[in-house]
Every structure is written in structure tokens, then in C-alpha cells.
Prior knowledge:
alpha/beta
Amino acid sequence: MGIFSLTQELAIDLGTANTVIISDGKIMVDEPSIVAIDHNTGKLVAIGNQARQMHGKTHGNIRTVRPLKDGVIADFNATEMMLRGMIRKVRSRGSLFSPSLKMVICIPSGSTNVEIRAVRDSAEHAGGREVYMIYEPMAAALGAGLDVEAPEGHMIIDIGGGTTEIACISLGGIVCSESINVAGDVLTEDIQSYVRQQHNIRIGERTAEDIKLAVGAAVSELEDEPVDFVVTGPNVLTSLPSTLTMSYSEIAYALEKSLVKIDATIMKVLEMVPPELYSDIVRKGIYVAGGGALLKGIARRFQEKTNIPFIVAEDPLRAVARGTGVALKNINKFSFLIK
């Protein structure tokens, strides 16, 4: 961005788990959606990675807040603080003065008008002059490299932190979609409760997240088996330290009840897809994006359930952010953007 640029354009994937900001085609911010706030003054202490390191380790004067829950804003002030702080990180690398901001922000497809308004207000309070919205499945499809404006059917599954979005897209619009609150956060909770119930060991959210990343699997048998994960935590009954080795097949069992709900939602959307678009989808396959796409064997699981090919998008974690960046470059061309 040049010294005399009057407008800075930002594509923002405001996710439940991570927030990604793209400017000039480059990822400038990619950090956890979490803030640390001084309990007494209400002032911001830290955001992103710095705040995540404090999560679960704070004392009475500092509290960590995840401002988004299930894909929507749960804490308006914390969201605004987080957005301001992250935008400041982008601006500090830019021009000598603060240019006006043009933003495209992605939102869940099931968002109500009140929820859309909350995102818009947060963005405007954080300095946005022009704010556009794009639905998450559309952004994920763009990020996966699909031609969303073509007269043919595409199906995308975006398994994020707070919601799983499943949508059929054609001619620049969402033909049918479903959004469920079973996604990364729920899978993390499943691991926490499984370790507590089956092994009598208490683990925190961060440890459960680490287990999910290391040995998280959607099927109980894999050709390329990951190394077992060693967990240490207090025993629920004695509070003495206990060590446990967890395999991917055990985690697949722990996640099964939540993955079954995603299976059922995929089938529900497939039932709604018009026949002409259905044949396109079977021919081209269904794309999987979002952090949940990193679960080992997830494409194979869905394929076995539906007999339709599943393809994991390239760099699925950032597919939505990349798609939001594509929408930003084509603001005047894409009619599906919400002004």
C-alpha cells in the first residue's frame, strides 16, 4: 500500500476460533479470536496469540474472552476491541496516516438480521467506512477455487470453529443450505469429556485442542497412522498427576456422536438439492473447507456415507479467508455481496 492511498481494503474472516485479515492479497493477521481484558478497568490487555497463551492461566484481575460463539458475536465490546487491535496490526505496516477502510467480512449463512447488524456495527466502530458481507459457504467455495457464478451445481462443507455450514451453490447464489452448531469447539469439548469420563483425567481446552490437531481422526482405521499423543493431567478422584497415551482410533470414537450429526446434515442438504444440480455435484465432488477438514480421514468418512467423491480444499484452514479476499477484489462484479 502506497503512502498516499486514501482507502485500505481488508478481507476479514471473523471466525469463532481464528480471525484472518487479508490486505493487498497477503495474509497480514492470522490469530486466535480471543482477547484478554483487565477485569477492573475493562481495558484490553492482549489479543490473538498473546491472549491465547493466557487462556486458562489468568488470575482474578485478568479474564480471557472468546467474543464469538457458534459463529456469531456473543460479546459486542470484546469483538470491537479485538477487531480494532487486529486492524491496528495491519495499519501499522501501512501508510503515514490512517486511510478509510473498505471491508468484506464473512458471516454464517444462517445469520439473522440482528446478527448481521451486530457484525456491521462492530466493523464500523473499528473504523470501517464501507462494509460488505459475504456468506461463509460462498467465501469457502471461492477460496476452494470454484466458479460460483457458473450455471452448475457446487457443494461445499465448511467445518469452522463454531458452526458447520453446508451449502449447494449455483449462479452466484445459495440454492439450499444448512448450518449446525456442531464444529471445532464441540469436537474439542467431546475430547475433554471423553478423557474425563473414560480415564478420570481433567484436561483444559488448549490440551484438548492439541490432541485434536495431533491425533484427531474421523475414522477408526487409517493407512498413515499418526504417533500417539501423551497427555498429563490431574486425576479427578485423587488430584494426583496421571499420564495417558491416546491413539487416533480412540479420538475417532470420542468424536463419533458429533460427526454423526454432520453426516445427517449433509444428507439433509443432498435431499434438498434439485436433480440437475445433484448430477453436477456427483460428477465434480463435494469440497470440504475449514479447520475441521484437517481431521484425518474426514473426506473418506463422508465419501463412504454418501457414495459421492469428497475433496479437501487446498489449505482448508484459510479457504474462507482466501475466498473473502477474492470477493474483495470483485466487489463491483459479485452481486451476492451484502451491502
